[in-house]
Amino acid sequence: MLPVRGLPEFTAGDDLAAAVAGAAPWLADADVVVVTSKVVSKVEGRVVPVPPGADREAVRQRAIDEETVRVVARRGPLKIVETRHGWVVAAAGIDASNVPGDSLVLLPADADASARGLRDRLRELLGVEVAVVVSDTFGRTWREGLTDVAVGSAGITALTDHRGAVDSHGNRLETTQTAVVDEVASAADLVKGKLDGVPVAVVRGLPFAAPAEDTGTRPLVRLGPGDLFPYGSRDLVASRQPAADLVPRDGDREAVAEAFRVASAALPEFPVVLRHGGEGDGVVDVHLPQRAATTGERIAAALNLGALLGAVVVQLHAEGWATRWEPVGTQGGSSLVGRLWLGSPRD
């Protein structure tokens, strides 16, 4: 891992490739050039200005919302969100460190395209065939500490699939896929560091495969059926209010209906039908399939209905409502019956 030192402070419109070529004329074929996403974003103008006198945190929260496709988890001001790129990351990857106080840096709009452009330009300037990885710092679920991962790549296979191969003991590998570009990004960060002002490093001597079709980092995105944790979580604080005080007033019914609309739109397709009342009605009907369903379909419907109600509770909590689920009993010996108590934020 070789640091590329002597690079300038980048601004919008700068020629990043020319700066790298000037600072590292020793680049050779089969090197992997790792560039932090922050400098890519700066030269591409992916910067949000903070107006004089404005609350920087308020500006940051608005920027996070604008870059967010889905809120996965939230605790206080911290949000773990899915970005339009498909990354699930804290604060939508918006960086407030190592930048002046009057600006914030977003993730590149398309870091794979940025990596391809940088690779082509380095070939033009130095005549070398290198791979390029655009890195960013992510946290890890269930593990403390940060590490760099790839958010863009070109000229290198992002994911090496070992499934179907046989190990030295004769065991067939069923799930092993190596995120090569993530490992490269993390290795390069050992010489870039977080406080040293070195945004570019070169990994040399790594044998890697060039993809037949350069899909960049898209194979790393795990969404849809492969996402085992699609619903995320938010802090739910148990209400200490008496049940009698948790009944919503007529004027709050539309807020409850809106919570159902937001929750149902955020969840995957499921066999539960929602009917919302007219404008201002605030009525929400929830129907299971009318036809005789199989046991599996009924279980799926029940699980998804539970997920929907949980998402509604989450949405209402986010808006300052007090909620409480009160089990009542069973119906027909098999169905759990309960009552959802709601308290308006005005209470």
Automatic annotation (TrEMBL):
Keyword GTP-binding: yes
GO molecular function: coenzyme F420-0:L-glutamate ligase activity; GTP binding; metal ion binding
A Pfam family recorded for this sequence: F420_ligase
InterPro entries assigned: F420-0_g-glutamyl_ligase (IPR008225), F420-0_gamma-glut_ligase-dom (IPR002847)
Alphabetized SUPFAM superfamilies for the sequence: CofE-like (SSF144010)
Domain of life: Bacteria
Domain Coenzyme F420:L-glutamate ligase-like: 7-205
Keywords: GTP-binding, Ligase, Magnesium, Manganese, Metal-binding, Nucleotide-binding, Potassium
NCBIfam families, per database record: F420_cofE (TIGR01916), PRK13294.1 (NF009810)
PANTHER family reported in the protein's UniProt record: COENZYME F420:L-GLUTAMATE LIGASE (PTHR47917:SF1), PTHR47917
Protein name: Coenzyme F420-0:L-glutamate ligase / coenzyme F420-1:gamma-L-glutamate ligase
Lineage of the species this protein comes from: Bacteria, Bacillati, Actinomycetota, Actinomycetes, Geodermatophilales
